[in-house]
């Protein structure tokens, strides 16, 4: 969890590249940490890397199906890729 928290701090500082690496390391240490997948996906969205965001956000939703923020971020990725129906489904 410490690596995830460090990643969040890097996002707040605007250092998305460092945040991505920290979130990846957090996932390597704990592959069931849905929040790290979500944070990585949200960071990918912020970087405009929406296809990569879809992949990791789906992991967050698979691990924790009721994770509302992950569904929202998944919707953002779909929306930015022009996949509106899938975005609506993710938001719901």
List the helices and strands and how they pair.
Elements: H1 2-12, H2 16-29, H3 34-46, H4 50-63, H5 68-80, H6 84-91
Helix pairs in contact: 1-2, 1-3, 2-3, 3-4, 3-5, 4-5, 5-6
Question: Could you describe the 3D structure shown?
Answer:
With 92 residues, the protein is an all-alpha fold. The protein has a single domain (2-91), classed as Tetratricopeptide repeat domain (Serine Threonine Protein Phosphatase 5, Tetratricopeptide repeat), CATH 1.25.40.10. 79% of the residues lie in helices and 0% in strands. The protein is built from six helices and no strands. Helix 1 runs antiparallel to helix 2, helix 2 (16-29) runs antiparallel to helix 3 (34-46) and helix 3 (34-46) runs parallel beside helix 5 (68-80). The longest helix has 14 residues, at 16-29. It is globular and about 35 Å long. The model has no long low-confidence stretch (mean pLDDT 97).
Number of helices: 6
Radius of gyration: 12 Å
- State the total count of DSSP E strands: 0
Element order, helices and strands? HHHHHH
CATH topology category name: Serine Threonine Protein Phosphatase 5, Tetratricopeptide repeat
Short description:
The protein is mainly α and about 90 residues long.
Which labels suit this protein?
6 helices, mainly alpha, 79% helix, globular, Serine Threonine Protein Phosphatase 5, Tetratricopeptide repeat, 92 residues
């Amino acid at each position: 969890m410490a690596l995830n928290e460090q990643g969040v701090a890097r996002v707040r500082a605007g250092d998305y590249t460092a945040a991505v690496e920290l979130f990846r390391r957090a996932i390597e240490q704990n592959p069931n940490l849905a929040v790290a997948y979500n944070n990585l996906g949200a960071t990918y969205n912020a970087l405009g890397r929406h296809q990569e965001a879809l992949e990791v956000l789906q992991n967050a939703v698979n691990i924790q199906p009721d994770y509302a923020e992950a569904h929202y971020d998944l919707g953002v990725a779909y929306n930015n890729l022009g996949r509106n129906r899938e975005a609506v489904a993710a938001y719901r």
